[in-house]
Amino acid sequence: MSNFSKGERTRREILDAAWTLIAKRGAEVSMTDIAQAVGMTRQSVYVHFGSRGGLLMALVRRADEREGIIEALTDAMHVQPAADRLDTCLRAWFDFVPKIHPVARDLIRLRTTDKEAADAWHDRMDDLHGLFKLLVQSLKKDKALAPYWTVPRATDYLWSGCSVQAWSLLVEDRGWSGAEAAKAIRYSLARALLV
User: Fold this and answer.
1) Which of 100, 181, 187, 188 could, after both became Cys, cross-link 170 (CB 3.0–4.6 A)?
2) How many domains does the chain have?
């Protein structure tokens, strides 16, 4: 028996159905499409999420929860030595990227014209940036951060280098495997950031 209330189970069912639809058809999927996928009315979906924006925000947070990315990154922050810590964090992140890529790609595409998609994307990327800042601070504390870098600049560089967009360019545009792209990005970031 689940520890979740009926309402929470329903929310999760809606989010998982929405994820599947968006991964297949794109983020322009309507609330009606999502409601039909779970056998309820559009109004019932609105009751659970308030708006399309609320659903998108919950959707990306649900992906984090379902895949355990925050826990994986948090656990990796305790790895010693510092170079292994960085690599463990990057491995956790790049294990996650292929799982979120179909939906992330669409949110990225829509963010310039769809405020709700942009808000959902920025919410998750701001959290990732915050986690990477903690990682960089730990590297600096352990005297493993190359002297060229300030914590803010190194955090921005790490965050941008780990972007879904960078991985996607190598995989989709240049034909690399996901594993090859992740390995190359991990290698280049370690070379750039560490003493």
Assistant:
1) 181
2) 2
